[in-house]
Amino acid sequence: MKNVLVDSNIIFSGLLYTGKPSEILKLLGKRRLRLLIPVDELEEIRAVFRRKISYREYLLDNFLRMVGARVIPAKRYLDLIPSAAKLIGDKKDAPILACALAVRPDYFITGDKDFSTKEVREKVNAVTPAEFLNEIK
Hints:
Low-confidence stretches: none
Order of helices and strands: EHHEHHEHHEHEH
Number of strands: 5
CATH topology: Rossmann fold
Structural class: alpha/beta
């Protein structure tokens, strides 16, 4: 089973809109792919749902249960946050990159350009939604 880590924008967009993020979420439900999600990112996604569309937060919970998402505790990647912060332009993204460095997913799917640098791609398999869909199909 392949492990997949996705950034919060993929989950939020995929649950609410059609397009590549929603295709990815459908594949997570159908294929032998395991969704990994850092606890920090889960908290961020919940906050966005509460702030923007609180009446739909149940979509997130149902989706995570349906795909059997594995929440990665912060203690697994906390010590990697400083080195991740040196690799990434936006320091608030350091925890998710640190998690990717710690768990080494088969795919780290993100539309965030900060993760598409040569330095990051050398450390983790960071792919765009389109790249992931092309590879997995």
